[in-house]
C-alpha cells in the first residue's frame, strides 16, 4: 500500500499540505523535471537553473528527513516530458493505491490535475495550499457583493486575521498604512546593502550545463547566478535582509538608481514563491524587528502589506477571475513589444537599465517592473498577452498566479480596473522624480517634442488622448484629463504626432 505524492517545483516546503500526516514508510515523493514546464514560455536561463537546482536540493533534504524520493531528471532518456506522462510512469513503478497532491498554482496545471482523476485508475486527492492566509473561498466571500475590489480593505482583513502588527483590534501605530512616508528618492550617499551571493555548488553547476544544453536559446544569462538554492541559504538571505535592508525598505521602496539593481528590496520572492521561505513566518520576523525597535513602522508595515496584502490579493483575483482572465484586453492594445525587451539595447536609459538587469539577474524590483517596462508597454499599446508572456519568462519569481494579475491587471489595465483603480501610466517626470536615470540619458526629460524629447512624455499624452473614451469617466483620471483639456488642439496634435513618429521607429 503506497501513497504517491507528486511535489511540483513551486512546492518545495517540508510542510506542504500533501506531505502532512503521510506515513514516510508508505509514501513515495515524486519530483520531476519536465520540458513541458520549461517551455510553456521560454523561461530565463537563470530561472530554470534556480528551479531545477532548488528541486534537486529539496529532494536531498526530503531524503535526509527520511522520505523515499523518486526524482526524474530532465535528461533521463525515459523522461516523457510532461507531468501527466511522468505520473503515468511513476504509477507503473510504484503501483500506488492513492495519489495525493497539493493543488496546483495555476489554471493550466490545475486542469491537468483534475484530468488525472479520470485518466488513472488510482484515486487522486487534492489538498488546498495552506501556505496562504486566504483560501479561494474566503477571497470570493470577501469580494462578493462589492462594487469595487480594493487591496487596502482586503489587507486590513488579513491584518485582523493574522494578528500581524495589531494592538488588540487596532493597527499598531494608529493607522493601517504608512505608504505616504515611503516615497523617498535615494542617492548614492546612502549606504546601499547588497543581497548575499551564493556561489553555485556542484549541483547548480551541473544544472547550468543542462540548461545550456537544452535551453541555450532562452533569454538571459547565468553568469551572475547567485540565488540561494536551499532553504538554509534562503533563510540566510532573509536574515541578511532583516538586518541590513529592512530598516530603509519603506523609505526607498519606490526609488531607482543606475547600476543598483537591488537597493533595499528583499530579493526573497523566488524563495517565497517556490516554497523555500514561509511568507507568514517572514512577516512575523519583520514584526519582531519592529517590536524590538530595530526598524521603523513604515518599513515593517510597508513590507508586511506587500505580502499579506498585495501577494494574497493578486492570488485571490487570479483564481476568482478564472482561466479567461488572461485574454482580457480592455484597451484593445495590439502592438508587439520592441526587440529591445530581449536585448536591453535602447538609448532610453531607464529601459536599458531595467531590462539589462533583468537579463543579467532575472530580477527587477517592483517600481522598475511597473513604472519602467510596464509603463512603456502600456503607453505604446503593447498586446497584454505578449507583455504577460514576457514577464512570465524573465523573472525568477514568476508563476502565473502572481505574475498575470500584476501584469495584465495592475500594469496594463487590461482587466478594465478589476484589480487597480487606475492605469499606472506616467510621463518622464515621474521617472525623473524617483530615479537618477534621466541624468545619464541621451533624451531630455523636460522636453515634450523634438528629436531629443523624452519619448515617455509624448507617449503619455498620446495614451491619454487615445484612450479618452475608456478613461475619462474614471474619477482618478480627472487630473490628467484636466491638463489635457488645457492644451490647445495644436499642442495635442503635436504630441500625438511625436508619439506616432516615435512608435514607428520601434518596428
Ligand atoms: P520586495 O520589494 O522586497 O517585496 C517583498 C515581497 O512582497 C516580495 O518578495 C513579494 O513576495 C511581495 N510582493 C511585493 N509586491 C507584490 C505584488 N505586487 N504582488 C505579489 N507579491 C508582491 N511578483 C512575483 O512574486 N512574481 C511575479 O511574477 C511578479 N510579476 C510582476 C509583474 C509586474 C508587471 C509587476 C508590476 C509586479 C510583479 N510582481 C511579481 C510583484 C513585485 O514586483 C515582486 O514581488 C518584487 O519585485 C519581488 O522582489 P523582492 O522580493 O525584492 O520584493
Ligand atoms: C517553472 C517550473 C519549471 C521551469 N520546471 C518545472 C519542472 O520541471 N518540474 C516541476 O515540478 N515544476 C517546474 N516548474 C514549476 C511549475 O511550473 C509549477 O510548480 C506549476 O506551474 C504549479 O502549478
Ligand atoms: Fe527614461 Fe526619458 Fe529619463 Fe531617458 S529621459 S531615462 S527615456 S524617462
UniProtKB/TrEMBL annotation:
The keyword ATP-binding does not apply. One of its GO terms (molecular function) is lyase activity. Keywords: Lyase. The keyword Lyase applies. This is Cryptochrome/photolyase family protein.
Amino acid at each position: 500500500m503506497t501513497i504517491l505524492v507528486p511535489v511540483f517545483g513551486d512546492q518545495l516546503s517540508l510542510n506542504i499540505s500533501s506531505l502532512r500526516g503521510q506515513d514516510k514508510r508508505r509514501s513515495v515523493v515524486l519530483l520531476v523535471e519536465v520540458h513541458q514546464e520549461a517551455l510553456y514560455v521560454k523561461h530565463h536561463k537563470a530561472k530554470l537553473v534556480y528551479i531545477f537546482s532548488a528541486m534537486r536540493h529539496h529532494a536531498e533534504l526530503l531524503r535526509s528527513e527520511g522520505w523515499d524520493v523518486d526524482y526524474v531528471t530532465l535528461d533521463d532518456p525515459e523522461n516523457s516530458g510532461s507531468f501527466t506522462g511522468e505520473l503515468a510512469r511513476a504509477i507503473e513503478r510504484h503501483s500506488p493505491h492513492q495519489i495525493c497532491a497539493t493543488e496546483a498554482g495555476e489554471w493550466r496545471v490545475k486542469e491537468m490535475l483534475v484530468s488525472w482523476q479520470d485518466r488513472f485508475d488510482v484515486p487522486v486527492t487534492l489538498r488546498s495550499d495552506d501556505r496562504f492566509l486566504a483560501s479561494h473561498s474566503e477571497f470570493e466571500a470577501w469580494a462578493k457583493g462589492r462594487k469595487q475590489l480594493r487591496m487596502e480593505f482586503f489587507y486590513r482583513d488579513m491584518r485582523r486575521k493574522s494578528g500581524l502588527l495589531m494592538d488588540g483590534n487596532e493597527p499598531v501605530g494608529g493607522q493601517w498604512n504608512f505608504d505616504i512616508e515611503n516615497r523617498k528618492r535615494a542617492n548614492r550617499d546612502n549606504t546601499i546593502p547588497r543581497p548575499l551571493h551564493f556561489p553555485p555548488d556542484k549541483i547548480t553547476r551541473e544544472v547550468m550545463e543542462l540548461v545550456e544544453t537544452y535551453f541555450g536559446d532562452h533569454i538571459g544569462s547565468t553568469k551572475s547566478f547567485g540565488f540561494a538554492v536551499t532553504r538554509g541559504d534562503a533563510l540566510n538571505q532573509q536574515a541578511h535582509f532583516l538586518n541590513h535592508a529592512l530598516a530603509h525598505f519603506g523609505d526607498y521602496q519606490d526609488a531607482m538608481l543606475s547600476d543598483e539593481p537591488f537597493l533595499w528590496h528583499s530579493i526573497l520572492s523566488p524563495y517565497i514563491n517556490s516554497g523555500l521561505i514561509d511568507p507568514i513566518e517572514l512577516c512575523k520576523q519583520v514584526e519582531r524587528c519592529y517590536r524590538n525597535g530595530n526598524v521603523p513602522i513604515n518599513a515593517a508595515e510597508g513590507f508586511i502589506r506587500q505580502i499579506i496584502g498585495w501577494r494574497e490579493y493578486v492570488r485571490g483575483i487570479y483564481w476568482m477571475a478564472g482561466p479567461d482572465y488572461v485574454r482580457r484586453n480592455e484597451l484593445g492594445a495590439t502592438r508587439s513589444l520592441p526587440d529591445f525587451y530581449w536585448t536591453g539595447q535602447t538609448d532610453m536609459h531607464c529601459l536599458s537599465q531595467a531590462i539589462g538587469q533583468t537579463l543579467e539577474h532575472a530580477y527587477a524590483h517592483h517600481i522598475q517592473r511597473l513604472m519602467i517596462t510596464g509603463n512603456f508597454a502600456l503607453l505604446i499599446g503593447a498586446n497584454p498577452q505578449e507583455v504577460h508572456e514576457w514577464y512570465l519568462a524573465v523573472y525568477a519569481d514568476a508563476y502565473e498566479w502572481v505574475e498575470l494579475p500584476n501584469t495584465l491587471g495592475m500594469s496594463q489595465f487590461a482587466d478594465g480596473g478589476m484589480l487597480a483603480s487606475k492605469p499606472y501610466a506616467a510621463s518622464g517626470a515621474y521617472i525623473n522624480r524617483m530615479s537618477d536615470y534621466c541624468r545619464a540619458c541621451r533624451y531630455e526629460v523636460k522636453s515634450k517634442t523634438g528629436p531629443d524629447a523624452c519619448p515617455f512624455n509624448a507617449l503619455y499624452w498620446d495614451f491619454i488622448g487615445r484612450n479618452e473614451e475608456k478613461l475619462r469617466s474614471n474619477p482618478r483620471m480627472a487630473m490628467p484629463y484636466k491638463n489635457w483639456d488645457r492644451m490647445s488642439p495644436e499642442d495635442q496634435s503635436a504630441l500625438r504626432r511625436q508619439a506616432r513618429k516615435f512608435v514607428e521607429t520601434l518596428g
